């Protein structure tokens, strides 16, 4: 990591200008007092004239040499500043491109998640109506499983675009890595040996455990693909204190305390052209059909969403090193999360208001909830939900998509809470919206269920929200 070129008098070339200024001052003193000094030391006029001639040529020669070095330094400085300007422009253009592709990916993932929710829900509803011996159940199970694979792909799209809802908590990275060790060894394959170097006094970070697993998994898969004949992957976690801003690959790391995760492989490495595009979505050097090109872009999106930075170093035939720096968490320990229920909770007789602007999602949720005995009210918009709630008199639970036409589901919950204090709410979504909206969800510990979800997941969350104490 190197310090950036700084414009102005505080840059690294300021010493040259100080030398020039000092030389100008000394030169002026030399011209002013040298003649007097010569006359005081040498009384012979011929000697004085000869020495004055040599003195002039000496001063001209030194001045020429100094000007040469000053001009060379200035040109080198201009070149570095121009390179820095071009790098900044390229980074800005790359960020714009990533943002545009991210918006596209996020929108596609949102619509796809809605479709998957409907497919999975209807398949499960149909299965519940069949006998255990019905041979068609296997086909429906395949539909649900394939939908789950598609859901994993949309999750990667959302992670890359930084539009994935995440639930960060104080996390011991050592413990998370140890928990994921078996998964990483399976993903890397038998030909790749994995070595872990974990600092004993590692600081905690604020991160989503599932997203950390995704980062580790993608790095392991990337290393495996770079070592088709086998090799070694080293994963290291250590504390890092930054006293002043560090720069690498155009990424700035402000002063502070960090936990640095390093993944180093002995694979084929990358050239500069490949490195420049490594984090681009859908860019891959693999054969057609062998990869999606989302692995590293997903890692980049997750790290950025967590407030961290990722850099890489690589050379052909010399392997690749990824360094991820996550800010240290020094806050208080949160209360432990309630244990997940071991069995699927039973239904109930409560009144549930379901709100989603996608008719197919609303239909599936209604059928799932009614099958468990709940009284269900449905609404397709913010305004319709307010009207339904007013006519119902009292509702026990609001289940709403966060993204509604015109207004957010959080705004709807707050409005209904004014009418009915103590109302419980469950939020669902297929993508992230404005981060401020999710801050309002997380700040009040409101339950959240990402799309696509299964019937069991929806029913479990509904029961959990209803049984939770009122806020």
Protein architecture, described:
With 471 residues, the chain is α/β, with parallel strands linked by helices. It folds into 3 domains: 14-96; 169-327, Histidine kinase-like ATPase, C-terminal domain (Heat Shock Protein 90, 2-Layer Sandwich); 351-467, Rossmann fold, CATH 3.40.50. It is 52% helix and 17% strand. The strands form 4 sheets. A 5-stranded mixed β-sheet has the order 2-4-7-9-8, with helices on one face. Strands 11-10-12-13-14 form a 5-stranded parallel β-sheet, sandwiched between helices. Helix 5 (181-188) runs parallel beside helix 6 (209-226). The longest helix has 84 residues, at 45-128. It is elongated and about 125 Å long. The chain starts with 13 loop residues before the first helix and ends with a helix.
Outline the fold blueprint.
Elements: H1 14-41, H2 45-128, H3 136-160, E1 169-171, H4 173-179, H5 181-188, E2 192-198, E3 205-207, H6 209-226, E4 231-242, E5 246-248, E6 251-253, E7 256-265, H7 272-277, H8 295-305, E8 309-314, E9 320-327, E10 351-355, H9 359-370, E11 375-379, H10 382-392, E12 397-401, H11 409-419, E13 424-429, H12 435-443, E14 448-450, H13 455-467
Parallel strand pairs: 2-4, 10-11, 10-12, 12-13, 13-14
Antiparallel strand pairs: 1-3, 4-7, 5-6, 7-9, 8-9
